[in-house]
């Protein structure tokens, strides 16, 4: 497949390195120091123990979408958008250049807004939501480190139908060594992931704590924030726990109990560093969805009230 990865941070570098190492025709749309790093030193994916698990020696990389099209020999089959949600608006011209009649644009961001924002840019018919589950972090430009063995990307049509384009993408991801599948409802999967990532990042940033403290000292507040997302999803028609399963908030806590003690989210790290973050795209999106569906989100409201001023200061 011809694949363009937009971004080469934790998610983009992970996916791009895996797909390139598997023999796919991968190009990266990146800028500035990241572009220089890929051209000078290639792209390296490290495993949890520091070993190299995938390597792209001379990856195709450019800051110009038209140049990537020329180098790839035409429009890509797939575009993986791995930037932050708030970067999507600025990506509009590049996305429209990259998207041909048969191009699939896959969202990978945390939260539930990205598929809708991408649809506004390139048209809903091109967009396939994706749900990435991985602990991957850029330790330096061009070097990505996996913090656990979890490497999964689920993709699916928004309406729950099966399609050849999704089947083809799932096959390519599996060859690249990822656990990939098409769930019955990719939108429900977006909410399932949000129930894990948003409380961890939001509450973790508010109390400046890794997951080890959230699942112990702050466990009650952590569970309450998870439950709010479960309730909002249910109000929008997405039951996150299957019949006969444990309550979904309990499932999330059980999963959290198994994670590395020092685990934090990218949003949490951005806020701690005083950088612009996805606070609005994650915590804000849950609050807006709750308001629309009539589902209260008091813990999210408190977290937003604590972190909002920090976010405003970071944005200048």
From TrEMBL:
Record domain Ketopantoate reductase C-terminal: where: 186-308
Pathway the protein acts in: Cofactor biosynthesis; (R)-pantothenate biosynthesis; (R)-pantoate from 3-methyl-2-oxobutanoate: step 2/2
Molecular function (Gene Ontology), one example: 2-dehydropantoate 2-reductase activity
GO biological process: pantothenate biosynthetic process
Gene3D superfamilies in alphabetical order: N-(1-d-carboxylethyl)-l-norvaline Dehydrogenase, domain 2, NAD(P)-binding Rossmann-like Domain
Keywords per UniProt: NADP, Oxidoreductase, Pantothenate biosynthesis
Entry EC number(s): 1.1.1.169
Reactions catalysed, as given in the entry: (R)-pantoate + NADP(+) = 2-dehydropantoate + NADPH + H(+)
Pfam families named in the record: ApbA, ApbA_C
Domain of life the protein comes from: Bacteria
UniProt cross-references to SUPFAM superfamilies, sorted A to Z: 6-phosphogluconate dehydrogenase C-terminal domain-like, NAD(P)-binding Rossmann-fold domains
Function statement: Catalyzes the NADPH-dependent reduction of ketopantoate into pantoic acid.
Family, as annotated: Belongs to the ketopantoate reductase family.
Record-given protein name: 2-dehydropantoate 2-reductase
């Amino acid at each position: 497949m011809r694949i363009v990865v937009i971004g080469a941070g934790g998610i983009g570098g992970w996916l791009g390195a895996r797909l390139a190492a598997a023999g796919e025709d991968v190009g990266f749309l990146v800028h500035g120091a990241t572009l220089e790093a890929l051209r000078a030193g290639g792209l390296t994916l490290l495993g949890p123990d520091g070993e190299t698990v995938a390597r792209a020696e001379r990856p195709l990389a450019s800051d110009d979408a038209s140049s990537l099209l020329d180098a790839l020999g035409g429009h890509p089959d797939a575009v993986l958008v791995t930037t932050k949600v708030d970067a999507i608006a600025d990506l509009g011209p590049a996305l429209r250049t990259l998207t041909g009649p048969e191009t699939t644009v896959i969202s990978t961001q945390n939260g539930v807004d990205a598929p809708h924002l991408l649809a506004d840019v390139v048209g809903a018919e091109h967009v396939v939501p994706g749900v990435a589950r991985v602990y991957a972090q850029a330790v330096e430009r061009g070097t990505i480190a996996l913090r656990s063995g979890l490497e999964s990307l689920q993709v699916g049509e928004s309406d729950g139908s099966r399609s050849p384009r999704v089947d083809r993408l799932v096959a390519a991801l599996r060859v690249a060594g990822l656990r990939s599948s098409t769930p019955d409802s990719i939108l429900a999967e977006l909410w399932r992931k949000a129930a894990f990532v948003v409380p961890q990042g939001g509450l973790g940033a508010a109390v400046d704590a890794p997951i080890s403290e959230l699942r112990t000292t702050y466990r009650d507040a952590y569970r309450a924030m998870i439950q709010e997302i479960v309730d909002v999803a249910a109000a929008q028609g997405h039951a996150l726990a299957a019949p006969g399963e444990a309550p979904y908030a309990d499932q999330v806590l059980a999963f959290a109990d198994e994670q590395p003690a020092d685990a934090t989210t990218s949003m949490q790290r951005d806020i701690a560093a005083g950088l612009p973050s996805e606070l609005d795209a994650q915590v804000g999106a849950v609050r807006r969805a709750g308001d629309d569906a009539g589902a209260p989100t008091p813990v999210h409201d408190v977290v937003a009230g604590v972190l909002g001023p920090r976010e405003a200061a970071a944005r200048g």
